[in-house]
Amino acid sequence: MGIYLILLGLLSICSLSLSQDCKTQHEVDVDFPGTDITSVYSPDADHCQQLCTQHPSCLFFTFIRGNWTRDNRHFYCYLKSTTTGEPRVRTPLLGVTSGYSLKPCSPDLKPCLSQVYQNVDFFGADYRTFFTADYEECQRACTQDSGCQFFTFTNEDIQMESIRFKCHLKFSWTIPRPSVKSLRNVVSGFSLKIQMGQQSDTVCQGKLFPRTDIPGGDIMMLPAASPQHCQALCSAHPLCTFFSFVRNGFSCQLKRDETYLVIRYNDGITSGLPAHFCQLDNNWVKVAHENVDFGGSDIRYVLLDDADTCQRTCTEDALCQFYSYVTAQFTDPAYRRRCYLKRSITMPAPPKVAKLTNAVSGFTLRNCGSTPSHV
Fold this sequence. Notes:
5 helices, five-stranded antiparallel beta sheet, 35% strand, alpha+beta, globular, 375 residues
């Protein structure tokens, strides 16, 4: 046991050795070239830094600002990493801002995004539109609508008459969506602190239809570990009216049809209805899925003796949302007893950010402590 604890401690120290220092300040007009993991859209360097913080392996970033003039890559957020935790090169470059992940800083994983962006469009992801007098009213509507994560308002001076005074409410996922596949001698599950869907004082069980398919109406297909996980995904999406979970392949089919609900017998499918107006019972989050792998999204791994300890370790780690544990019976000895702690980005993230004169964009204020009054 003593050797085991020493080994675990060494692994924990090694996992934190990269970029240990808490570095909150941005480096304006400085580029960290190369070593990109991926690129995403972001309205400013602060939001880009939050995206880097939530990404499992991002250690630093470079953000291309709206005043960039070399090409059309405005609002690009490049997430980066190195084995040392530091950029290999720092280069002066006008129009960019660079900085570091806040992972070593005990970050708030549900940040308040109160900034609004003039002449900026959060393009796409609309699920509801209507007219409001100004962007403040649009932001209040977004904050009060449980499905809304960000918005764009187009004012009276916009060139297109059809979208003047138009408030566009937009959706992005705020619950983790791990990839799911069958893999012998692997156990996977979720942190017990994970927040699935909206929070409400009213708790409900939801409605499931075993051995039942609801054909048609597909709006999106996602991986899911169980029918209950699929139901949580449907409940989080404002357009989802029912769903079907295909056991063979771990496929969650989100569907929309507000007129008809036609059911068909199918032994390999469980269908159901979402819970948009209550808090789903989350006991299913405690279930460990044997011979199932949640692939990728690794923060780090530690050596542990069993899957229960792995789940507790994930729950105690503020960054961990889900995990996979490789048992001692796994075919490759090099991976045995590894507990992989994992996460995905779950903060509001527009699919695209672009310049648009006479538009104002911003985020829900639900994480900002005080909620505006109802619209």
